[in-house]
Structure formats: C-alpha cells, structure tokens
Amino acid sequence: MTSGDGVVRRGHPIFAVHVGDYPEQLLVTGCKNGECPKCPILRTDLGAEMDGNRPLRDLGKVLDALATLDHDGPRAYTKACSEAGIKPLYHPFWEALPYTNIYHAITPDLLHQLYQGVVKHLVSWIREAYSTEELDARCARLPPNHSLRHFSKGISKLSRVTGSEHQDICRILLGLVIGLPLHGGASPVRLVRATRALLDFLYLAQYPAHTNQSLTLLEDALQAFHDNKSIFVDLGIREHFKLPKLHFFDHYRRCIELYGTTDNYDTQFSERLHIDFTKNAYRATNRKDELAQMTVWLERKEKIDRHAAYIAWHHRQPETAPGYSSSLLVSQPPRSQPSPAPTPTASGPQVATPTSIIRSSPSHAKARGGRPRAVVLPVARASR
Ligand SMILES: [Zn+2]
Prior knowledge:
There is one protein chain. By secondary structure, the protein is mainly alpha-helical. The chain folds into 3 domains: 22-105, no CATH class; 110-271, no CATH class; 275-382, no CATH class. It is 54% helix and 0% strand. Helix 4 packs parallel to helix 6 (163-177), helix 4 runs antiparallel to helix 7 and helix 7 (189-205) packs antiparallel against helix 8. The longest helix is centred in the C-terminal third of the chain and has 27 residues, at 290-316. The radius of gyration is 27 Å and the shape is globular. It starts with 21 loop residues before the first helix and ends with a helix. Mean pLDDT is 82; it is low at 325-384. It binds zinc ion. Residues 36, 38-39, 41, 54, 247, 251 line the site of zinc ion (ZN).
C-alpha cells in the first residue's frame, strides 16, 4: 500500500477499532439489547456506580461457542452461544482475524453516547426538575454572545434536536440551572453538581490530547456525577440509571489509553455521510418503495463519480490515449448527440439525472466550460 509520503510499503493491517453507534455495536458483538457490548456487567448493575477496571467479555469463551456450529450442530451451537452471553452469530467477520478482540475494539461514541444520549436525558431531567417555562424564559434572558447560540424561544420547543444543537445547549446549560430554586424548597446543590460533573466529563472526553492527570479528572467527573445523581431519584424524575450509555463512560479511560483521543473514532465524521447517501437519496424518490429507488440512485451516482474520475484522469494524461486528445473532449457541440443519461419515467423511480449531479462537481464544471453533455458524450464513446 502507498502511504501518505508516496512510499510503497508492505503492510499488515490489524483490525483494532470498530466505530459505530449502539445498535451497530450490538450487531457486531452479538450482545443483547440493554447490555454493555464490552463487559459482562448485569443489566441490574448498569449505571449504578463507576468501575473502570471491569474485565471485558471472555473472547475465548465466545470463540469456543462459535466453533460449535461446525462441530456439534445448531442445537448445541445455540446453547453454547446463550451460555457465552451472546446471540447466535453465524461466523462473524472478526472470528478468524489475527490479534483481534472485538470487545476491545468497541470504542466510545461521543455523538450518540454523550450529546444524543446522556446529555439528552440530562436536559429532559432538568426540564422536569424546574418548570419548562422558567427554563425557556432563562434562555431568552441570556444576553447575545458571539460564541453562544441564543435560543430566543427557549429549548423546550425544539423538535428532533441534533448533535450540534445539543452542543449549543451544553454551553448554556449550567448557566440555566445555577441559582434556580427547586420546587418545594429542596436544595438544588446536588443537581447543579451532577450537571456540572456531566458537562466536565463531556468536555474532558473531547480533549485533543491527554495526560494521566486529565484522565484522572475525567474519572473524577464521572464519580462526581454518580455521587450526586440521587437528586433525580429524590425528585421523582428517575427510578434508576440503568442506561447502557451511562455505563459505557466507565470504559472511556481505558479506550483513550489504548486507541488515543476520542476524535480518532468519532462517529460525527461518518454521520455526515447520512446526508449524501441517505437523505439526498431519499429526497430523490417519490416516497413509495423508497429503498429500491435509493439503491438505484446510489448506483447511478457511483457510476457518474467513476466516469468523472475517468475524465479527470484522461485530462491529466492526454498523450497516453492516442487519438483522443483532451481538446476532443470539449470540442463537441453540446446538442449534436442524444443524452446517455437515464431519465426518470412516469412509472419509474424519480431519481436525479447524472447531468444534474455532474453539474455539482466543480472540477468537472471547469473542464466542460459550462456545457455538461459536451464532455460526457465523447468520452463515453472513447472509453468503449
Ligand atoms: Zn461495560
């Protein structure tokens, strides 16, 4: 493989990290819903207290259970998987990979565990503890600031709050609750401490560099939340904290020590692809039987991208393609050829035409000088 400095090296990649949200973590490890995908903690103990030294699940036991499928038949296999604490997985991809422990490979997920997970819970608990009207009024009273988003209508009316909106809320959350008395004259001290501890954990977990001291602060913040979370039980807001996402905070320190800071395996980066591969694809459908239409849309988009890459390559190396100079590519009249683009029919999928997508490619637009079909057609013929 060619590395970033252009040198070709012999590489032996090892599967070390699996980046995904909670359903994906369960899918790849075979754990059941509501369980931790890393350690064999009981569901009743989830979120009870902090313990960063829990042993991980026994990989050897799981591999032995998976091996019974080929030797002892499906009945023994199902029983062995159940005893190993996993769902029956049919030869998972990591089974035979060298030096791979799938339970080590499960990593923290800031977006889904913190912003869209525990922080989302915390905001709803705070809204229950104080009145929604008072919190919204406090949001509106905050003076505008360059680094803060001003929620002029409050935070309770937001629907489908995104990760970035939760980031904005986190910046003002502590300011909203400080000095606000609880109903019935209860002391808000533990609530403020629990909120602050969770926010401390949130920001420490995102540090771009760590020392032993910062990792200790991370654990201290989590311990402070566990020490003060009982306020939500006393107020009648929660009965328990059996949240797998809250429990997973126990594993943050070990994961950071093993795999580096959390920005190395943050799902926020891959989550961006939902827009290109899912949301845009869905918008191109007629909302009926959308999966097949989205698949066709993606297939066509891939073909167009490959074709655009071919054209870019051709422009870079005109002398290597005898008979087809780069000037030929742009010299054709735009309307002299029929369009090769599959166009949507009345009964067929309503997908975006390739022409419209090529238009969105800046490099390609530059090459064609504003005439999309003048470029696409001659090269399509030249490539036969
Ligand atoms: Zn665990």
